[in-house]
Amino acid sequence: AKNAGKHRYACYQPHMTAEAMERLQLEQDLRQAITNNELELHYQPQICLNSGTLKGVEALVRWRHPEKGLIMPQQFIETAERLRIIDALGEWVLKTALAQTVRWHETSKERFTIAVNISPLHFEDEQLLTTVNQALEASGLPPEYLELEITETRILQTKAGQANATALRQMGVHVAVDDFGTGYSSLTLLQDLDIDTIKIDRSFIAPLADKPEAAILLGTIVGAAHAFGAKVIAEGVETLDQARILHGVGCDLVQGYYFCRPVPALELPATDQSLYPD
Ligand code: C2E
Ligand code: CA
Ligand code: CA
Ligand code: CA
């Protein structure tokens, strides 16, 4: 099958395979997913290693398809990018996550941040600043409680991406580099840009138990981040051992199945209890 190019809209053709037709159907469904109210957010706690308490949550989108059930983001984010509906999706995620966070802040004593993933495509868009501003104003959430996560650090090196990052930080919004250590990201990023948080990819966390060198590498990353005033979150923490090693090398926050899976808003653990048993 031919790949649909950037500006080519797929449409039905008689020679299409069943698989191609299913993909096309899914694209059509995705275009309507927002208006049909089929998207939902799950939230995963970010836990402070020193206090054991929840300091932030990351919003992770899911698509509740009427026939296919719950579809995970890896199955539709790329399609949303290709169809150029990622901005609308991002806007929905922002508004929903911010409104939810304000509700949490109203009912719990503790304030915590909300982390929202922004597609690199969206991050380069001028419109992003307006969208973020509007979402903040509509919800009433103070900007310092919002953290935007961006995976592709290449974007932070383009003119448009850099301008957006600077403007966001001037607004008081935090910027996090997601999947740190993979792809194009490197420590020089900390020097060149004002990054609030780095999120260390889980490929660095998994080897911790059986390779002592892995902890040394992590300690170096943490040290460099701290020297530049950035916080460090480790992702994909699945065991207590990993958490202890991370604590030992000075990592600030952890996120992972060991502590809590991504959950619907109503199932978020209380903010006044320790999620770190020791
Ligand atoms: P990510 O931003 O790196 O998010 C972390 C992913 O790791 C999530 O998968 C999360 O459920 C999973 N995870 C959390 N703890 C663990 C753990 O201990 N072990 C393992 N193996 N996995 C863990 P999820 O929810 O399927 O999201 C996948 C990716 O989809 C995200 O990766 C992010 O890049 C993208 N994504 C999710 N929500 C959004 C969104 O609202 N907008 C955009 N643009 N992308 C999103
Ligand atoms: Ca993320
Ligand atoms: Ca990540
Ligand atoms: Ca990822």
UniProtKB/TrEMBL annotation:
Complete-protein stretch covered: 630 to 907 of 915
Name recorded for this polypeptide: EAL domain-containing protein
Domain EAL: residue ranges: 23-276
Entry's localization field: Membrane
Superkingdom, taxonomy of origin: Bacteria
